[in-house]
Structures are given as C-alpha cells and as structure tokens.
What does this fold into?
Amino acid sequence: MSNLGFYQDMTKLAKKVGGPLVLAGLTAAGGYLVGRAGEFGVVTGVKQVAKKARSAGAKRARTIATLPVFTVHTEADCGGGLTMAPGQTFRVTERDGDMAMVAIVGDKDSPYPVSGALLATFSDFIDG
It folds into this structure.
C-alpha cells in the first residue's frame, strides 16, 4: 500500500485537466468565485438589515411625533445635568413605574430619564 495518498489523487486530477498549472488556475478561479459569491451574500444581507433599521427608525420618529407635547412652566433641575427652563416643550416616550423617558423638542441628546412625579411639579404633565 502506498503512503502517497492525496498526492496520487492530485496527480491524476492534474493529468485530467491538462497539467498542474491548469489545476492551480482552476483552483484559484474557483476560490475567487466562491469568495465573490460569499461577499455578494454578505453585502446584500447588510444592506437589507440597514434598510430595515432605517425603516424602523423612521417609524419610531413618526410615532414619537404623534405623542402629546408638554410645556415646562417653572425652571427645574431634573438631575443628571438636565435643567429644564420655562417654555421648553417635551414628550414622554416611555414610562416604567415612576421613571419617564423625556424627549425634549429640538434637543438632539434626548431622551433623558426623569421622575414622573418631578415632571408633574414643574410642567403640565400629569403623573398617573
């Protein structure tokens, strides 16, 4: 029994396709095609995920725009470096217990977590 194994198989295959250089060329071309096909699949998948994310973001922005707007009537320190001034407007985007996520109209750093009870003391927001 021979210990040449795969070498003999490669030699037979090289003879069938026209020599070792042709076999090397076919191997390289096949690898290139498989790589490009994989790249195409990944790029297509990334584009679809990005499209869905943009769509979800736009939908969320439309949803936030439909929420009621509240107005601040007294200056207040909300903690975490957030101070709200009279006349400022905000929307409550989410609630969890007493905490509310406040999206201040025109503030790109929004939302901020603020106590619902605190909001009720300095704005027309009704905690409940």
In short: Residues 77 and 83 are 4 Å apart (CA to CA). The first strand starts at residue 70 and ends at 71. Strands lie at 70-71, 76-79, 82-84, 89-96, 99-104, 112-115. Residues 20-65 form the longest helix (46 residues).
